[in-house]
Amino acid sequence: MDGNGRWAKQRGLKRTMGHERGAKVAEDVIQWASDLGIRYLTLYSFSTENWKRPKEEVSFLFSLMVRYLESRLNKIIRENVRVRFTGRIEELPQEVFDVCKRIEEKSKNNSKIDVILAVNYGGRREIVDAVNKIISKGIKEIDIKDISNNLYLPDVPDPELIIRTSGEIRISNFLLWQIAYSELYFTDTLWPDFTKDDLIKAIENYSNRERRFGSISSDEGSEK
Ligand code: IPE
Ligand code: MG
């Protein structure tokens, strides 16, 4: 969800106003995704690198998250949304961590869509944490499955489609292990301007791609 700061700057507003608008768009995107039948949606909300930002911006982002999660709890339950977190949330300020845990607990039996908020998340950190978990179990030699099974949320399937907004063409430490065969979609639209049409366009683009997972086209099977 990139481009909040630039969206605000274009309008002569403070960066925090961009985040405010970005949070509203995230709420809308959850609804659109759910209506479209998407089963898992992960929103990269705060990376392990975002601590480098001014501390006022960091604390604004956390208070925005807490405000949204608390005020939307009834809606989350009503809409059958399961909210989960990926990342080292135990390193967040205590009150933020507590709210995350509470929402996770209250929504754990919901089943229309899993909304996964990546908070204090880093893909390299996640892989290292998985390896350390494996080591602590005394396992000496590992396989691909060992890493997959020891990620933060091992039951969540690898993403089929990754959307990055605001014209940046990079991954920025997002789900490094899980995106091995994900389709990537980049758009110049800034996150606060992202609409339902943009979401549908991304999904349509994805639908027209042929996913071969290292194999060849199914209609080329007989060629030698
Ligand atoms: C929001 O966009 C992403 C968050 C980390 C919350 P940015 O804050 O990165 O916006 P730009 O890149 O400055 O435009
Ligand atoms: Mg950015």
From TrEMBL:
Enzyme class: transferase
Keyword flag Transferase: yes
Protein residues bound to substrate: 3-7, 15, 19, 47-49, 51, 53, 164, 170-172
Domain of life of the native organism: Bacteria
One function term, GO molecular function aspect: ditrans,polycis-undecaprenyl-diphosphate synthase [(2E,6E)-farnesyl-diphosphate specific] activity
Entries under SUPFAM superfamilies matching the protein: Undecaprenyl diphosphate synthase
EC number(s) given by UniProt: 2.5.1.-
Keyword Calcium: no
Entry keyword set: Magnesium, Metal-binding, Transferase
Swiss-Prot/TrEMBL cofactor(s): Mg(2+)
Cofactor note: Binds 2 magnesium ions per subunit.
InterPro entries attached to this UniProt entry: UPP_synth-like, UPP_synth-like_CS, UPP_synth-like_sf
Binding site for Mg(2+): D2, E183
Residues the record marks as active site: D2, N50
Reported function: Catalyzes the condensation of isopentenyl diphosphate (IPP) with allylic pyrophosphates generating different type of terpenoids.
NCBIfam families: uppS
Quaternary structure (record): Homodimer.
Family affiliation: Belongs to the UPP synthase family.
Protein name: Isoprenyl transferase
